[in-house]
Amino acid sequence: MRETADAQSSSADAPSADDQAQAEGLAVQLAELEAKIADLQAARIIALDIIPGAVPMETYRFPKRCLMLFGAEGPGLSEKALELADDVVYISQFGSVRSINAGAAAAVSMHAWITQHAAPRL
Predict the structure, then answer these.
(1) 87-90 and 55-56 as β-strands: parallel, antiparallel, unpaired?
(2) How many CB atoms lie within 10 A of CB 47?
């Protein structure tokens, strides 16, 4: 009788096939989320500002994953923002004007990113 009770107890403690499948599904989801987090953490911060040492946008290769920072027209980005940036890029301009509206700068920069990374549509 004791052997029967022990057998019933151990079968009740063993996970069912549904429980195992659910656990495996959760493990797969967790691995996918961890991969996405790693991908996002690898994103580079790109500052757009006209400062000494900045790279012209025409020669810069934007990373696939990036966050672009734009400063106010005139003063540009703060020193802290520039310190946090992985790269600093500027939009080439002709004439004596050395600033561009932040919305216009964002549009130009995002278009440059798209031309480098978007698949052509046929």
Answers:
(1) parallel
(2) 24
pLDDT digits (tens, 9 = 90+) for 34-89: 888 888 888 999 999 989 999 999 999 999 999 999 998 878 899 999 999 999 99
Written as six digits, the tokens of 82 are 């520039």
What does the pLDDT look like over 18-39, one tens digit per residue? Answer: 888 888 888 889 888 888 888 8
> Which pTM was predicted?
0.68
Residue with tokens 């802290």: 80
Alpha-carbon span 3 to 26, nearest angstrom: 35
Separation between Cα atoms, residue 46 and residue 87, nearest integer Å: 5
Amino acid symbol at 78: S
| Residue in the structure block whose two tokens are 């990374």 | 117
Give the three-class secondary structure for 103. Answer: helix
